[in-house]
Amino acid sequence: MKKRFWTAAAAAAVMVGSIGGTAEAEEPFRVGICQLIQHEALDSATQGFKDALTEELGGDVIIEEQNAQGDFYLCSTIINGFVAEDVDLILANATASLQTAVTATSEIPILGTSVTKYEAALQLDSFDGIVGGNISGTSDLAPLDQQAAMIQELFPDAETVGLIYCSAEPNSQYQIEVMTGELEVRGYTAKVYGFADSNDIASVTMNATMECDVIFVPTDNTAASNAELIANVCIPAGIPVIAGEEGICRACGVATLSIDYYDLGYTTGQMAVRILRDGEDISAMPIEYAPEVTKEYNKENCEKLGIEIPEDYVELQME
Fold first, then answer.
1. Rounded CA separation 231/252 (Å)
2. How far is CA 271 from each of CA 36, 51, 89, rounded to the nearest angstrom?
3. Element (H, E) at 170
């Protein structure tokens, strides 16, 4: 890294230098954050990351945060701006941000967060938990087998489960493929409904409600940004939604097996501190995961649909 924090020896050297001449203090680290789109999960991850950095580094880090608002071209502009500024580290929040950052630089350390499968996002031929090069980060993948088991626990008499996702998001594609297999081994018919962008969500969701007993929505950024739209279709139709994360569940879901995105971002921030302050080699840092998952339910939506939830589920706090 091109910048270092003060050590006792460095401070002493500056004091000696100041006696006989001018000594310059080193500049703080500069970190650029590119968040793909604004929604609850990504917002929480960004906040956790910033909190970890500022708690550990204080005034010795300058954070520049930008949001691409779902615009892939703007995402590229933001990342290329960070590269031109020669920041010390880039946080790429969400898959598209990570993909863009990887294309833009092979020198500046890149940490991803809110990325489900790094091997899918980066099209890696082999993956042992370490991406290598200038890339590492955290994954928001909640165990898909446990999510399928949740559907079976809550809706044992259902026959068809609809899986709704954005076909432009490779991590969503991965989740849908795995969930299809997990549901089929449990005796369900899994029907996949992909939408290209937010313009298709209402019609695709309507088709799913007419053909399915339950709907599953993975950790999908486009779906998360339009979760209210999904709710406006599913709730009146009487079709329950199992969501891949809390934010989606608050809007349109009845239950979720979710991680805490703030904790995920905080973990990513701790990784950044180890790279910046401690000089840890990012190429050897394995992808880290959320420490735990929680079975949560949306009380309001459950009451609207007349769904009873087992006692081991935690009521989702509405914000």
1. 4
2. 20, 13, 11
3. helix 170-185
pLDDT digits (tens, 9 = 90+) for 52-68: 999 999 999 999 999 99
Are 167 and 197 a contacting pair, CB within 8 Å?
A: no
Using the structure block, give the residue that is written with the tokens 């569940």.
249
How many beta carbons lie within 10 A of that of residue 63, not counting itself? 20
And the tokens for 255?
Answer: 């239950």
- pLDDT average, residue stretch 19-27: 54
Domains with residue ranges and CATH for the chain: 27-140+261-286 (3.40.50.2300), 144-258+294-315 (3.40.50.2300)
Bridge partners of residue 217, in order along the sequence: 243
DSSP β-ladder status, 110-115 and 89-93:
parallel
- Find out whether 222 and 193 touch, Cβ atoms under 8 Å: no
CB 250 within 8 A of CB 319: yes
Q: List CB contacts of 33: < 8 A, sequence separation 6 or more.
A: 46, 49, 50, 63, 64, 65, 66, 90, 91, 93
- Strand, coil or helix: 315: strand
pTM, to two decimals: 0.78
